[in-house]
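Q: What would this complex look like in 3D?
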Amino acid sequence: MIAVEREARALGSIVRRNFHLIRRYAGWEVVFLFYNVINTLTIGLIGLSLPPSQRAHTVVFLAIGALLWNFLSILFQEISNAVSWERWEGTIEYSFMAPIHRLTYLMGVCLYAVLYGLVRTVIILAVVMMFFHVSIQRADWIGALLVLTASALPFIGLGLMGAVLPLLSTERGAQATQIIQGVLLLVSGVYYPVSVLPGWLRWMSYGSPATYTLQASRQAILGGRPLASLLGISLELFLSGFILVPVGLIIFQTAERWAMHRGTLKRNG
Amino acid sequence: MSVKISEGVAAIECRGVGKTFKVIQRNKWHRTATITHAVKGIDLVLPRHQILGVLGPNGSGKSTLIRMMATLLIPDEGTIRVFGLDVLEHRMKVRRLINRVSVEASFFKKLTARENLAYAAGLYGVPNHQAQKDATRILERLGLAREKLVVPLENLSRGQQQKIAIARALLTSPTLMLLDEPTTGLDPTSRREVQDFVLQVRQEHDATILITTHDMPEAERLCDQIAIIDEGQFVAYASPDELVAKWGEGQGLEHAFFRLTGRDLENDVEESS
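A: Here is my prediction, written as structure tokens for the whole assembly.
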């Protein structure tokens, strides 16, 4: 069999496996989705407490933040928790012993995360639009989609780096990924402009891809900024992804080798 | 793409293999490092088409040795070759040649056997329809009803899960099977079915098998050679008959094991459970 076909089949089986798992944990999925919807609506409602002239703008500003953060955090979480999840199920040794490239395995996890994140975000978007009746006729949706697509790559790279932590520490690795996610939430201007951050914290916002994603998406949706003017920022996000993904992969493979030396691939060695 | 195996090479060749684990225990004020020599200077040549049994008390290094052969652990010392391929240099090729059944069935417990097998088949590049067909045939041979394929694994008994794990390993047509206590926890009938199947696999699939077990009659029935491991070292390596003749004093393999390790295997199993 051609190597590419074999790897593609493996990639497909990882995506399919994860969707099968969603079906089996359907109850939890409903609970998480319900919480995400309520959380997004709650954040959007803050905008309605403002004077009428600022309401629509603020509601959309906040909703964009909540929706994008929902998508990007799903992406980050699904990738960074891949190792913890396999370890919890007891399948990590079986999956990692398979004759496929680690890149294939991780790309399978990433592809699933993108598809799953999109589905959940679209559902929340639909509820938000019905709930707030906000007019965003000037929005450049194609531009926003372009920015979102471009931002997926650097977040995949960050997710790969986060996935290393459970390999390094069987006990605390999964919790440590929450810290990375928390810092990104704080510094990226999800619900406020990064200009309000204290100076010592603001510099960190420049290193987060989410900062640029949020700024560009808001310009596209709220300001109706034309597609052409978003190409630059999208290209920068793409390029940062092209750096972060291989770096994440190298770090992951190094950590895997370390775990195979220490015997920590499996929880009890 | 299949991996070409040179004629005349051993299925497994270990030279001076050693593995040490460092476990750090944290208490309130300080950390203590405990060094465990899990495997020490193992030399082994397993010819093709043979079944080698590795017997040893709990914690003697059996699973560590199998994990190193399965490319899941990197040895600190020595080399391991599988069909002439170094497990570190040619990891991917080695992985195409082997499959491992571990003592705990590694499955997504919420998924059905069919879904788990589809995942496994995909990882090894086996078309799903072929995998399902083969799995059904293998499981029927192992005495597992077809209906069980659509039941979540968590609702099946340990014996049934273990049979599915064996079927999953065979789907990939491994040339070397590493079976880490595959019959532990099975009832006598299931154990017998698995043993028959192991013999059949060797016969029909041209496979070499390394098996660890606590079951002495099983070892005597299945194995061409038996290695007894204690505290990370082989203390004996011979055919079952030779072991009984030399160490068993006419009282069987268990007696030989007891004399070689100074431990009673049955008590050891009970202590660990």
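A: To summarize the key features: Residues 188-205 of chain B form the longest helix (18 residues). The radius of gyration of chain B is 19 Å.
Q: Very helpful, thank you.
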